[in-house]
Description:
By secondary structure, the chain is an all-alpha fold. The protein has one domain. Helix content is 71%, strand content 0%. The chain has helices at 6-28, 34-52, 60-69, 81-98. Helix 1 runs antiparallel to helix 2 (34-52), helix 1 (6-28) runs antiparallel to helix 4 and helix 2 packs antiparallel against helix 3 (60-69).
Amino acid sequence: MSNLSYNETKQKHFPTLKQYVPIVERVHGGTHPEFHTIRELFDAIVEKTKEAGDTKPGLDKEFARLREITNDYTVPEDVCESYAAVYKMLAELDQAYHA
């Protein structure tokens, strides 16, 4: 993983995640219904981050729930590279937030 701050990691990953998350949900949501919750949590993270402005947003609950439903960001075997990329970026955000 990296030593980037949460703000740096957010700037690096939010644009891609905003594109990938809805697509992955549409493609894999039927066989991986937990991804609907992942999208809801990601949307909440984006909103809380926006509302926090320059201060650190309170995202402990969201990241704890993401770790729980993704089995600590363990990528399922039957998914595409975009799904795996979403998990990797979310894990990096989680790590940067808690650093």
